[in-house]
């Protein structure tokens, strides 16, 4: 390009630029530009108009630039000024940290250029805050990664220790490819190999005549069924019959199978031993044990119950309602069954058993509701409480503390008032207990306490229990 016949722009040369636009060019070319004298006095400050992070710095003009530098930046500037005045170090960048009266800092990378014979210098700077912020973010991310790595190592160590310390034989299998992801030593022993050799192996190949797809599908179906049903298979290596109990979970977006392995022989042996012990306890135990249906009809009873009821044979009591052998009949049965069905069990319910010949024996009854089957049943454990009843009647249960608390009333009230007050307390406690046991059934509570319904309502009103919420 030429103007008036002369070349305007030569390669490697800078055209003449008017003073009126030079300041704008410098301001836009750098984030901040400062003109200083050879002794460091600020002559001019230009800030990029598109960079609002510095604010207004006109107040710097006429002051020493050292006043706006941090203590560690002042020696760096002085060394560079000495080098430039000596004709060395031109164009080499330098990082300085600025600070003003508001105590906030910002780092700038400067290049220094001599622009006049009197030693005047032009400092062209680039703001390093974005880079510093990015570096801080990288450092924080690195520290977070290190913390996550340490946490992962801790969890991994705990997992390894747990896998090897547990007595259960467990295997983690990927549903995607059917391969073993993790296996402990107990499971590897059942499969007849070492854990390291089994990791990554196809799980289906460890069992006789099992295809991968069908095998994984059967385990998955068993795991997601409403009632988990174990799968019995034979190990290919050890020829042992194993019981597999699977469960499905998802980890990091991948579906996994958690399979617990058990030896069928050991399960059968343990089950047989437990069954034998329970059967022996049922037949020879000192406490009466009775199994009934949901309505309280006796299905089975042990020898101790026959002794309590003076029944000659189990066929005499089987098929009869349990209420036929309780003094309060349907009231006791309803209280026991309702509470057991609502909470799962009821402990130490005091009542009396009536034998075939009319004799009565004080007993304590505990009931447990078994609902984990097609036909729920209730098991009653009945303990003879004759000795405890005798002790209570003899007054042996009256403690020194109880006597002292009553004796403390002597002198502060008449004997009639003392007896009346203690009687009211006991009476209220008994009524509250009966109402709670019968789930606020007033008729049943009255029968349990041996009161008429009208008398019970009078006492409920007396003690402020009439408005009691049934729930």
Structure, explained:
The chain has five domains: 21-127, PAS domain (Beta-Lactamase), CATH 3.30.450; 129-162; 166-268, 2-Layer Sandwich (Beta-Lactamase), CATH 3.30.450.20; 285-397, Beta-Lactamase (2-Layer Sandwich); 409-471, Arc Repressor Mutant, subunit A (Orthogonal Bundle). Mean pLDDT is 79; it is low at 1-9 and 394-398. The protein is of the alpha+beta class and 471 residues long. The longest helix has 37 residues, at 129-165. A hairpin with a 2-residue loop joins strand 11 and strand 12. The chain is 40% helix and 24% strand. Helix 13 crosses helix 14 (442-449) and helix 14 (442-449) crosses helix 15 (453-462).
Poorly predicted runs are 1-9, 394-398
| Strand coverage percent | 15-25%
Identify the overall geometry: elongated
Count of alpha/pi helices: 15
- At the fold tier of CATH, the topology name of the largest domain is Beta-Lactamase
Provide the residue-averaged pLDDT.
79
CATH class of the largest domain: Alpha Beta
Tally the structural domains: 5
Kindly provide the radius of gyration, computed on alpha-carbon positions and rounded to a whole number of angstroms: 46 Å
Q: Give the proportion of residues in helices.
A: 40-55%
- Supply the CATH architecture of the largest domain: 2-Layer Sandwich
For the largest beta-sheet, the strand count, sense and barrel status come to: 5 strands, antiparallel
End-to-end gap: 100 Å
Query: Would you report the number of β strands?
Result: 17
* CATH homologous superfamily (4th level) name of the largest domain: PAS domain
Which structural class do you get from the secondary structure elements?
alpha+beta
């Amino acid at each position: 390009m030429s103007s008036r016949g002369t070349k305007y722009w030569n390669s490697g040369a800078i055209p003449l630029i008017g003073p009126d636009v030079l300041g704008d060019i410098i301001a836009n070319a750098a984030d901040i530009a400062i003109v200083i004298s050879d002794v460091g006095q600020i002559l001019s400050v230009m800030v990029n108009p598109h960079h609002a992070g510095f604010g207004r710095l006109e107040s710097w003009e006429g002051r020493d630039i050292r006043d706006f530098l941090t203590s560690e930046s002042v020696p760096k500037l002085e060394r560079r000024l000495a080098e430039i005045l000596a004709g060395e170090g031109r164009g080499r960048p330098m990082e300085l940290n600025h600070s003003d009266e508001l105590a906030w800092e910002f780092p700038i990378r400067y290049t220094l250029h001599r622009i006049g014979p009197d030693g005047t210098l032009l400092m062209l700077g680039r703001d390093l805050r974005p880079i510093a912020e990015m570096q801080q973010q990288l450092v924080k991310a690195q520290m977070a990664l290190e913390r996550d790595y340490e946490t992962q190592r801790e969890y991994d160590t705990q997992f390894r220790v747990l896998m090897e310390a547990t007595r259960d034989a467990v295997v983690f299998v990927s549903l995607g490819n059917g391969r073993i992801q993790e296996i402990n030593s107990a499971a590897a022993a059942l499969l007849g190999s070492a854990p390291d050799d089994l990791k990554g192996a196809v799980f289906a190949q460890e069992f006789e005549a099992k295809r991968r797809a069908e095998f994984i599908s059967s385990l998955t179906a068993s795991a997601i069924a409403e009632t988990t049903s174990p799968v019995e298979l034979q190990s290919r290596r050890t020829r042992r019959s194993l019981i597999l109990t699977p469960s499905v979970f998802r980890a990091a977006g991948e579906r996994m199978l958690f399979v617990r392995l058990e030896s069928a022989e050991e399960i059968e042996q343990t089950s047989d031993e437990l069954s034998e012990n329970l059967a022996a306890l049922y037949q020879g135990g000192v406490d009466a044990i009775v199994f009934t249906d949901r309505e309280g009809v006796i299905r089975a009873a042990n020898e101790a119950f026959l002794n309590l009821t003076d029944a000659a044979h189990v066929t005499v009591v089987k098929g009869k309602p349990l209420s036929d052998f309780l003094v309060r009949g349907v009231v006791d049965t309803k209280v026991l069954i309702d509470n057991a069905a609502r909470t799962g069990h009821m402990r130490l319910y005091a009542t009396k058993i009536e034998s075939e010949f009319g004799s009565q024996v004080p007993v304590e009854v505990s009931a447990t509701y078994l609902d984990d089957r097609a036909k729920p049943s209730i098991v009653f454990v009945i303990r003879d409480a004759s000795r405890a009843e005798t002790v209570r009647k003899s007054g042996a249960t009256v403690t020194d503390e109880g006597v002292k608390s009553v004796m403390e009333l002597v002198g502060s009230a008449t004997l009639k008032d003392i007896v009346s007050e203690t009687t009211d307390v006991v009476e209220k406690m008994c009524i509250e207990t009966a109402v709670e046991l019968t789930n606020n059934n007033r008729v049943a509570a009255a029968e349990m306490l041996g009161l008429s319904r009208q008398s019970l309502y009078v006492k409920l009103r007396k003690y402020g229990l009439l408005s009691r919420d049934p729930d």
